Structure formats: C-alpha cells, structure tokens
Amino acid sequence: MTTEVPRSFHMTPDEFRRQGAEVIEWIARYMEQVEDYPVLSSVEPGEVREQLPATPPEHPEPFEAVMADLDRVILPGVTHWQSPNFFAYFPANTSGPSILGDLLSSGLGVQGLLWATRPACTELETLVLDWVVDLLGLPERFLSTGDGGGVIQDSASSATLCAVLAARHRAAPDNDLAGLVAYTSEQAHSSVEKDVRVAGLPASSLRTIEVDERFALRPEALAAAVEADLAAGLRPFFVCATVGTTSSTAIDPVPAIADVCERHGLWLHVDAAMSGSAAVVPELRFVNDGLDRADSYCFDPHKWLFTNFDCDCFYVADRSALIGALSVLPEYLRNAASEQGAVIDYRDWHVPLGRRFRALKLWMVIRHYGAEGLRHHIRRHVALTQELVAWIEADDRFELAAPAPLNLVCFRHVGGDEVNQRLLDELNASGALHLTHTRLDDRLTLRLSIGQTHTERRHVEAAWDRIRTLA
Ligand code: PLP
Predict the structure, then answer these.
(1) Ligand 1 pocket: which of 191, 270, 305 to mutate (most atoms <8 Å of CB)?
(2) What is the pLDDT of residues 257-313, one digit of tens each?
(3) What tens digit of pLDDT does each residue of 204-237 get?
C-alpha cells in the first residue's frame, strides 16, 4: 500500500535558487533598460487593477505566470524613479549593494526588536550609525558611545515624530499637554504638522514661522513668537529647523535658532531629510552648521545616499528622553541582557516593536562605495546642478526662483504661471523626463532635482535642451 506524500506548497530551496536567479536577472535588465522607458507612467486610475483578477487564486500559480503579469501589467503602471531622467520631487535613489543588502535582510527574516532577539542586527545598526557620524562629520554627541546615539527609522516623518515625542516627554513628563507649543518654518515639510497631531497636540499648537527672501526661517520671528507665547502663559517646547526644505532646499539658520532654543529650554530637532547626505563632501559641510547644539537630527540615506527606501538615520544627543517617551516593558519581553543594561533595545527608539535588518543595506552601500565613492557621486550631482544653474542664468526667458545650494534648481519661465504650467505638462507628457513643481513667492515654479544614481551630464543637458525647445 502506498501512502500519498502530502503536498507542502512551499517553494523548495532549488526552486528559490532558480526563480531567485531569474528575479536578479530581471532587476539587472531593468537597470540596463530603465533609461528607455517613458519616465512617468501614463496609466489611468484603476487601469492596473482592472487587468488583474478580482479574487485570489484557489490553486498555486506558476512563477512564470506571475513574472508575465509583472511585465504586462505592473511595469506599465510604474513611474521610473530609478531612471536617470527622473528629476521630480527629491531623489529616492538606490544601488546594487543596497538592493542586495535588502535581499539578505529578507533572507535572514530578522526581527530586531531586542538585542536578545538578534544581537547582530542591533550591533551592526549601532556600528553603522556611528560610522555615519564619522562619514558625515556629524557632532560626536550623536555617537552611541556617549549619552546619545542613532537608530534607523523608516522615514524622516517617523524620525521627527520620535523627536516630538521625546521633546514632549522632557517638557511634560506627567503627560499634561495643555499649552504646549511647537515651532517650524512655513516652508517646513508637512510631516512636522502631521507628527505634532499624532503626538496628541492640536494642529493649532504648531506655529509656522515666516521665512526670509531665501525661504529660510527668520530667527527673530521665531524668538518673537516664543516670547509672545510665554507671555500668554503657554509652554513652548519644540522647534524643528529644516536643512534643505522640500520646496527649494532652503537652509534654516540653525545656529541662530539654537540660540533661541537654548534661551528658552526648547528641544531643537533638525530635519535634513534630503540635504543631509551632502555632508559626505567636506566642502558641503555647511549643512551641518549648528548641529552640535541640536537635540536630535535626521536625514534619509533613502533619498540621496544610494540606499533604497526605507532608511532614515535619526540621532539624539541624549537618548534618555527618547527612551523615556517610548519604553514600555511587558513581562514577555524581559530578558537578562536588557535587565543588565548592557545592550541597546531599539524597540524603545521608535514606534513599532518589530524591525527589519535595515542596517545591512546601508553597511553594504558604505562598504561598496567607500567614503571616496559616495563623495564622488554627491560632488558630481552638485556640479551638474551648478552647471544647469549657469545655463538657466544665461537664458533670459528663464529666471531662478531660489538659491540652489545643492542639487535642486527652482526656476521658471518669465512668462507667468500659465506658460510654466503648459511647459511642465508638455515636458512630463513627452515621457523623456519627469519634473514637478512648487509655488514660491506665490508663483508657479519648476523644480529640477538631480540625484538619481545614474544621472549623467548628458541627461541634464538633454533635459535643458527639451525645456528650451518647448519654452
Ligand atoms: N522632510 C523633508 C525636508 C522632506 O523633503 C521630506 C520628503 O521629501 C520629508 C521630511 C519626508 O520624508 P520621508 O518620506 O522620509 O518621511
């Protein structure tokens, strides 16, 4: 009598080896071909979903069928952020070592909530974040060897939320939130407002401070707002300065903002989501000015440091307020290493409990490029941006709308909003490149952001040629 072996349904290691090799080959081909795709997906809302079955399959489907749908349905619905002709928003660049690091992280399937649940995940993260202090010339107070330290968060939005929560804990350890007031510039990223709301404060407790002609926060306006709130019996507690605003890469004067914070005992957080990566280049370390006086700092290697989403480096000068705000210890997580106080448990440094092994990809990027390679590419992007600035300045149909200290150019046609809107629409419809816009001085402004891994001079030149031709 033969007994039937029950079907396992699992992918065997041999199937994984074969299909995994095909996926790697698919990605490598995508990297080679991405430049040839129309940058902006042209699908209509609902079009992707319509082409796929409305209900899940009852029976297992072959790998080949899934890959065929990837080519047929998914790829046309992708806007190609990794195209060298992608100049929209801010970059979200990536690289081979980063993708492989992410794959290894998935392969290990680590949950790094506690040191004890995977020591290497914690210790590599601590090491890599200390490396980044060195790589970017950040203040030593952010090193884990002192009172501070760094942690990888999923995004700058989450990092700033943790900064607000730590500041709230320091200002109101008894959780009496009445009258707490936070400050940021009117050009700050929308995540600051969202974070303040998530932290349990009304949106009205956030003051958006006016900016100067360079779109940077006016420190004297900040001081006046804080003093007015104190006089009204309110409790100022938190300031978020931005180094490299989303609209125009304006750089808030962090040292002057730190003066105000120190005078009134306010938590100073610095959000350098995109621009922070510039500090790998010594001559661009003006982006670090005043950081030695910040309580917390974040930047996104997933924007401009060749590390795919998600990877935000978040630092605090004194970790006790952060841990005080976020630590909850149920019995089932108690363990000897934590109790001896000998280890870092990163679950106390952010909102979720579980965490992926994200340090692997950043570690692999840094080891693959070395500081030298990272400096080379950031310098290259900034030099290309400065070339584009010179071309725009030389064409009297166009004007610069803001200073371009790093890798974003804000510019417009002098013909007004309608002309700029038409130009933007035609450029994006061409498929040859993708740009986005903002409003500066209440005028429609085109943004061209240079930071994709493989953007070369020829791509920027072609973009400028097309802009001039369509103008
Ligand atoms: N802060 C600034 C200055 C940004 O430019 C951005 C996004 O562009 C963010 C925060 C939000 O970034 P994330 O997607 O990492 O939350």
Answers:
(1) 191
(2) 999 999 999 999 999 999 999 999 999 999 999 999 999 999 999 999 999 999 999
(3) 999 999 999 999 999 999 999 999 999 999 999 9
CA of 66 to the centre of ligand 1 (A): 33
Choice among 129-138, 244-253, 326-335, 430-439 with the minimum mean pLDDT: 326-335
Any atom of ligand 1 within 6 Å of the Cβ of 407: no
Which region holds residue 20: left if phi is over 0, alpha if psi is between -120 and 50, else beta? alpha
Q: How many Å lie between the centroid of ligand 1 and the Cα of residue 249? A: 12
Å from CA of 298 to ligand 1 middle: 10
Q: Which residues contact 70 (CB under 8 A, 6 or more apart)?
A: 26
CA–CA separation, 52 and 34 (whole Å): 24
- For residues 343 and 217, state if they share a domain: yes
Which residue from 257, 285, 302 is spatially nearest to 158, judged by alpha carbons?
302
Domain boundary among 344, 364, 384: 364
State how far the Cα of 374 lies from the Cα of 371, in Å rounded to an integer: 5
Q: How far is the CA of 157 from the centre of ligand 1 (A)?
A: 6
State the residue range of the domain holding 241: 100-364
Check pocket membership of 189 for ligand 1, CB cut-off 6 A.
yes
Overall number of domains in the chain = 3
For all residues of the chain together, what is the average pLDDT? 96
Here the CATH number for the domain that contains residue 316 is: 3.40.640.10
- The predicted pLDDT at position 2 comes to 64
Shared domain for 262 and 331, answered yes or no, is yes
